[in-house]
Amino acid sequence: MLYLLLYPLHTQFPIFNVFRYLSFRIIYAAITAFLIAFVLAPPLIRRLQSHGIGQKIREEGPRRHQGKGGTPTMGGVLILFAVVLATLLWADLGNPYIWLALGAMMGFGAVGLLDDYLKFSRGTNHGLTAAQKFGGQVAVAVAISGLLYFLPAYSTKLSVPFFKSFTPDLELFYIPFAVLVIVGASNAVNLTDGLDGLAIGPVMIAAMAYTVVAYVSGNRIFAEYLLIPYIEGSGELAIFTASIVGASLGFLWFNTYPASVFMGDVGSLPLGAALGTVAVISKNELLLVLVGGVFVIEALSVIFQVASYKSRGKRVFLMAPIHHHFELKGWEEPKVVVRLWILAILLALFSLSTLKLR
Predict the structure, then answer these.
(1) Using an 8 Å Cβ cutoff, are 311 and 302 in contact?
(2) Are the C-beta atoms of 190 and 268 separated by less than 8 Å?
(3) What pLDDT score was predicted for residue 68?
(4) Cα(78)–Cα(99) distance, rounded to whole angstroms?
(5) For residues 148 and 303, what is the distance between their CA atoms, to the nearest angstrom?
(6) pLDDT band at residue 6, thresholds of 50, 70 and 90?
(7) d(Cα 84, Cα 72) in Å, to the nearest integer?
(8) pTM for the whole thing?
């Protein structure tokens, strides 16, 4: 919005020429999102408390978590608001990729909001059924993937890390593949959101990594130098991911241990979908496995646990997702969180190195 309103004035007022620089708008999108989240969090927390919108803690979880019962939840609406507003202010709204990313985030946010609302209204830890939640996620992902597929000149070829010449073309099968990436990322972040600050930290780290990826994939010179697909216009997505970084920082101030607010499904589902959508648009879908390695580990721990228990009647972990396993092993919650953050940082750095290692 600011770009469309103020940049045309640069011929009369040279100072507005700064709006042409993507790096300038990336930085200020992050700052704007942070300030929105940081300033609005306290009144939102008070409002949630006044309406009794608190987290219901499952009884089979670690006993130390029972003390968190009643902590305000659904704080993810603040993250959504901060990301959307900052993106609208600083991005080029004539760019279709921006609207697809925002559409994915808002669509998955609606699914998460309905799930959280049902939990609150029923006074239980059960909202939408698994089928209802999954169906809603798939519907939104299919819409986003279908619109992306029919954009002119959009490629359905995959970019495979470490390989510069191996680019298989999925053609029409790209739509179900993109749906798998977006829905998978959404649920993986949702499974990770079990400890104070655990999910928002790796989300912020992954968003930083994809800010770099989106920036270079949208720059012809950088893309050709790194031998990665050049996606014209995808650089604007760096503003979207930078907004996620800023909003995550602002939310983390209140979500760090001991948390004053939880994001709920209205936060975790759209954040994961946003990362998946950016990965798809920037043609670095498979890189998300590395960038979001912590989310992958958390999701796989649940899959292995369920598969092992159903097939052998035995559990692989003391409890899944794996962060609860470490808690039951005696690790304090902050230690689990920070160590997984460290792992997320290392994986993000390694992921970025693959842009050159081809």
Answers:
(1) no
(2) yes
(3) 64
(4) 19
(5) 30
(6) low
(7) 22
(8) 0.94
